Amino acid sequence: MPFARRFLAPLLAAILAAPALAHAAESPRAANTWITEAQAMARSARVSNVAYTLDFALTGKPDFAGSSGIVFDLADTAAPVTIDLDKATITALTVNGKTATPDYNGFFLTIAPAQLRKGRNHIVVAYTRAHSTNGEGLHRMVDPVDGRVYTYSHFEPAAAHQMFALFDQPDLKATFAVTVTAPADWVVVSTKRESAVSAAADGMRRWTFPASKKLSPYNFSLHAGPYKVWEDNSGPYPMRLLARQSVAAQVAPADWFRYTKAGLNFFDQYFGVPYQWEKYDQLLVPDFLYGAMENAGAVTFAERGFLHKSAMTDSQREGLAETIMHEMAHQWFGDLVTMKWWNGLWLNESFASFMGTLATADATEFKHAWLSFYATAKQGAYATDQSVATHPIEVPVASTANAFDNIDSITYAKGASTLMQLRQLLGAEVFRKGVHNYLQRYAFQNARLDDFIGSLGRAAGRDLRPWTRDWLYQPGVNTISADYRCKDGAIASFTLRQSAPAAFPTLREQRVQVASFVREGAGLRLAASAPVTYRGAATAVPALVGSACPALVYPNYQDWGFAKVALDRQSFATAQALASEVADPLLRSMLWVSLWDGVRDGQLPLNEFIATAVARAPAETDPTLLASILGMLGRSRTYLDAMHADPAYVAARAGEIEDMAWRAMAASGNDANTQRRWFAFYVANASSKDGLGRLAGLLDGSVKVAGLEVGQDQRWSIIARLNRFDYPGSAALIASESVKDGSDAGQAAALAATVGRPDPAIKREWLAKVQDPATPLPFSKLRVAMGSLYPVEQAALNEASAGERLASLPALDKRAGPVFMRSYATLIPATCSPASVKRLDAAAASYTDLAAGTRRALLTQREEDQRCVTISGAMTAGAPQR
Ligand SMILES: [Zn+2]
């Protein structure tokens, strides 16, 4: 595949671009919002040197008017040219100075050859269009608190044509000159700062933005509304932060500017190429589909992820710092140098995830950023890579409809881990030099994977093609284990073994560090360690021979490599006994992961893991690790609720978890970060009558916990939990709290609390709304509903509509787009029984033409359902089955 693909794509593009065949390439473009790779490549083979002059008339009303001036060079006039513009009403079209009748199907315009010229062409499209409410294009939102209207753009992967007329593909970079008419109290933000703002008719103002440097369309952006603006000019480039007026009090601009400034200094130095977009704007925006987006010089962030009504905890600030760094890394790697087509999106994301973590560790107070990466993102990658959802890091992307099919923990975190490994393998400075050369060489252009790897290879003086083939074009994770023998208290032989799953037999080259530990006092002491570069199934490690016979061997010490670690029997026993006693937080984290792997693989009974975690979590002092252990315990609780065990047994285990959490929360009053962590865990796990009663008491003030502040965010989380268990009076709490907090976030919280109630009428009502193609609800609301509709313990309600949800999957998949289906995947029924697994098997067998993303979601649900059944079976001791 890699070879065929590398040579086929340019060849195909060349063939398709040949005059005789070009028409054949463009004419079959289906009347829909997507463009295929072949069509896009055929277009960029003929079109070049693009410049846009855009004008927008924004009033705050649901519609807007626009005009797109498009100037470009055309190689030939043998075939029509298509211009993307989604669901607009075209009011005028001129092609090369002549008025033309639009040939428009609601998705793209077709400009006939007779209207075109070889060489420079100038097309102007005037149109009106509704603002989007789906989070793409030019999204519009009315603030429920004060009625103010906010707009922002979001284009990735290919939604710029939901806002203006263009060639919507990443390899047609262009300059963007913009004018905007907007209400007088609005601020307008784009890639560059405005050069003029003048008064216009009807109390409006007219904003002028000079032509930008060359950008891929999805990196251009425009945001407009009565945003509150903070400014800071203390860094190397001017910085601004924007947010809605009604949430301004929740923003901590000092934190934002501090991390931003640190990042700009770090990246300028690391890349050795100065930041190119002159100023750095960041906006908190509502209804945002993703976490954040790296628009050049005007980055958008989801309010949902980064706005908090209470002071941020350390871990929330760490998340903010890391996201700021991730998006900033994209300003070079993604915006300055851009992938040619969407198959290269993974490298953008992997690189930004890798560099974001590096910058966070290096340039902020969060020195433990790599531990956080290991405990969260990397575990997601391991899980996905061992699942039915695995895929090579680099895969073809047939059409813009598929651009996000493979955007998951493989593309973000496994990709980032392979880059981290490559840096270990080549050396940190060689790696940096290779990145610098790549950015220098391809600035303001598009590049392919081979260009990037080639640059690293040249810096290292090494052919990286075999490495690339094994790591980037083959799926699956290798398992490594230590095979050693002791004699007279010392290691007599040591072999590092590598294995692969039967389906993906590739063995890989990797540089790791093997370490052995001996018992000392209550804990463990490092006895010996050695770096090892291994390739095949068995690699001798002579450096460890002669060192003390260990209690524990860890073959990926300090986390250089991407490999599943299988502990030997002795080491696993040590991990179980001493996981909490290890001083090094990263190693401690790795041992907890080994225990959790044991549960997921059906080797360690769930009840044993729960007992270990309940006994040790309260004493965990590292905040990242505490979060990680509580995450595992939370998933344990989900398994407990899902499996069909004796309810009295489940209630007893759940009670132990609940009591532990309450005591730990009460005991951590002198540490707000830890207490907030325990509070969140307690709310997510309280289910007994007493436990829910305590929550109700915290809400009405009759119960107090020293140090704990119950703010608006915490109040909503309590109300959702009480409603989920139909606690007496809980429905009325939603109504009364909504009166106090009518904000956008308050409305979302109220909706989540409502749909989570164990009420068949609510389930029917909201399932119908979610499945209704003509629903007037914005996607942001539907997404909230989907995420909260069937809590795990509401098994009977879940089962009641399970068959119907599964049966309607193919029709819904045909009708709804990939963004919707990604959220809908949570409604694919998996209820942890052999019958449920069988039902999913039958669906997988008969629904063979689902979109790739939906099919993968179906298979993943089936696999996780089977895992739940297996874990249930492994939990024999004292767990009678219902
Ligand atoms: Zn990213």
Could you explain the architecture of this structure?
The protein is of the alpha+beta class. The chain is built from 29 helices and 28 strands. It is globular and about 90 Å long. Mean pLDDT is 94; it is low at 1-27 and 877-882. It binds zinc ion. Zinc ion binds at residues 294, 326, 330, 349, 352.
Brief summary of the model shown:
This protein has 882 residues and is α+β, with helices and mostly antiparallel strands.
- Computed Rg: 28 Å
According to DSSP, the number of beta strands is: 28
**Class derived from helix and strand content:** alpha+beta
Count of alpha/pi helices: 29
Please summarize the sheet with the most strands. Answer: 8 strands, mixed
The low-confidence runs, each spanning 5 or more residues with pLDDT under 50, are 1-27, 877-882
- Order of strands, main sheet, comes to 5-4-7-2-1-10-13-12
Average residue-wise pLDDT: 94
**Beta-strand residue fraction:** 15-25%
Q: State the end-to-end CA separation.
A: 50 Å
Shape: globular
Bound molecules: zinc ion
The helical percent reads: 40-55%
